[in-house]
Structure to design on (542 residues):
């Protein structure tokens, strides 16, 4: 009788700890584990073999379910802290549309759906609306420990995703309603690189684009470029390789492809981690390349006049095709790369993809200390038009593309993010956003001016602007004294910098986006890939 009462008390205590952890956060569990330092507590909790066997069986069943159930059929497992983190703050936003004239590259899918940065200018702005905060609904899908760095949308409005785990990348076509993969294509495994952590390995796992024929053009870890159809003749999802281009003659085995993008003549340009850049002629498969001699850690941009803009860890380059039909450097503009790789970056240098603005301007950031600068360059000769320092001393760095607002750009602060553990136990990074505009004075002099700043902390969000709503969408991690790890889709009024609303997408480290982009779909929803799957946020249907 007494033993049964003790078993009930132990079970009640364990259930109470579990319930309090769910409600208040992981510090409850830390405190409970600390109590085990007491021999008296350990003696009281000492389980029988039946209890141990029961818990072991439960864990095995849970693992079995995870292994057997296909990707996307289960939600991302929730973390603790549900009652100490708000589910929604702010209020619905009234759309304030913006105009941004971005030319359509004829060899890309329509602007807004073609690639991570939306278009050939890498504006990170789209005509598609995002959620306005009208009773937003959050849905998640669990893919295991797999993250989808880049999302695009085919002409059937299905998601095309370049995803990967510790072994290597793969392509998915995903149903936007159920968030379940419809078809998958495994790509060559990612090689181990000594001294490089898996999430810092940029080889062929971050960037791809959809071409004008709705085909995914993707670099592989074995130095090829694949052109992959995303649907069959009936429009059903399919991932069949239409063309393969071998770049091994131009890219040695100790180098790797980072990104690909077409120019306005249809050449498929590429950059490698060691600074080789060039293009493939799709008709013949001929490859031409040159060596910049400097590391590349991001994608690039192309323009209507055939120019290609690449930022290395030392300089911004404008490339073009020579009369002889080979790539050449038109100009090179060095910048202040700082004295060290800052926490929050995967390389020492600019962490941005070049962003083209109207009026013959291209924007990047440098890596200066104590504060980095947003820099605008003249596309004709590479001269520095102006620059503006952003964020606090010794707390400024970015590893994400700038967002074009037409007259300027928005920059995100990633300083302090060294890995997923950096946001555990309720912690976050210094964060911040700033809008910097190009202003022309009465005397014709052009200067860079900070329009607004925001304290929103988005450790690695790759924010996106909806021209239809006038909102900038980012992925936020707030500090929490209870140790809860709550992640939010946050919407910022791009005109003023004020936060319109934020909605909690989930709790726990599995909800960390870890450099994956926010993506706004044709359906008006916002999609964010996390370490364990996919999040979708959309307004309540009327």
């Amino acid at each position: 009788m007494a033993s049964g009462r003790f078993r009930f008390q132990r079970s009640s205590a364990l259930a109470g700890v579990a319930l309090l952890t769910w409600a208040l956060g992981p510090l409850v569990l830390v405190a409970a584990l600390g109590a085990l330092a007491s021999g008296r507590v350990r003696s009281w909790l000492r389980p029988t073999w039946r209890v141990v066997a029961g818990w072991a069986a439960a864990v095995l069943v849970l693992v079995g379910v995870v292994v057997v159930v296909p990707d996307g059929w289960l939600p991302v497992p929730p973390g603790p802290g549900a009652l100490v983190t708000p589910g929604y703050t702010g209020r619905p936003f009234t759309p304030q549309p913006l105009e941004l004239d971005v030319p359509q590259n004829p060899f890309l899918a329509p602007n807004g759906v073609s690639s991570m940065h939306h278009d050939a200018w890498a504006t990170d702005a789209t005509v598609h609306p995002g959620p306005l905060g009208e009773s937003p609904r959050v849905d998640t899908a669990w893919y295991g420990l797999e993250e989808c760095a880049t999302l695009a949308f085919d002409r059937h409005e299905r998601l095309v995703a370049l995803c990967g785990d510790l072994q290597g990348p793969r392509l998915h076509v995903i149903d936007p309603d159920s968030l379940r993969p419809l078809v998958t294509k495994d790509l060559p495994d990612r090689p181990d690189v000594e001294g490089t952590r898996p999430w810092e390995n940029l080889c062929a796992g971050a960037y791809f684009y959809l071409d004008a024929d709705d085909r995914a053009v993707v670099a592989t870890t074995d130095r090829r470029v694949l052109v992959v159809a995303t649907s069959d003749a009936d429009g059903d999802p399919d991932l069949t390789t239409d063309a393969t281009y071998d770049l091994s003659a131009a890219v040695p085995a100790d180098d790797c492809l980072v990104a690909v993008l077409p120019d306005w003549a249809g050449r498929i340009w590429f950059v490698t981690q060691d600074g080789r850049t060039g293009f493939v002629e799709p008709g013949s498969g001929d490859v031409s390349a040159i060596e910049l001699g400097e590391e590349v850690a991001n994608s690039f941009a192309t323009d209507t006049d055939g120019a290609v803009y690449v930022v290395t860890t030392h300089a911004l380059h404008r490339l073009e095709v020579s009369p002889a039909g080979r790539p050449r450097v038109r100009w090179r503009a060095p910048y202040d790369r700082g004295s060290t790789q800052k926490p929050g970056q995967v390389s020492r240098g600019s962490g941005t993809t070049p962003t083209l603005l109207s009026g013959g301007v291209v924007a990047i950031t440098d890596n200066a200390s104590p504060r980095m600068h947003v820099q605008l360059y003249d596309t004709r000769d590479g001269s520095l038009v102006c620059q503006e320092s952003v964020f606090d001393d010794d707390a400024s760095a970015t590893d994400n593309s700038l967002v074009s607002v037409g007259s300027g750009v928005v920059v995100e602060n990633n300083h302090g993010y060294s890995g997923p553990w950096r946001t555990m136990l309720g912690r976050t990074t210094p964060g911040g956003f700033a809008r910097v505009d190009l202003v022309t004075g009465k005397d014709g002099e052009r200067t860079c001016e900070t329009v607004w700043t925001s304290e929103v902390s988005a450790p690695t969000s790759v924010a996106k602007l909806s021209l239809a709503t006038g909102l900038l969408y980012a992925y936020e991690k707030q500090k929490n004294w209870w140790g809860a790890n709550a992640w939010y889709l946050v919407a910022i009024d791009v005109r003023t910098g004020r936060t319109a609303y934020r909605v909690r997408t989930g709790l726990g480290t599995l909800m960390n986006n870890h450099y994956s982009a926010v993506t706004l779909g044709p359906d008006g929803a916002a999609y964010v890939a996390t370490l364990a799957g996919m999040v979708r946020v959309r307004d309540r249907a009327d």
About this structure: The radius of gyration is 24 Å. The first strand starts at residue 88 and ends at 90. Residues 296 and 396 are 20 Å apart (CA to CA). The first helix runs from residue 2 to 24.
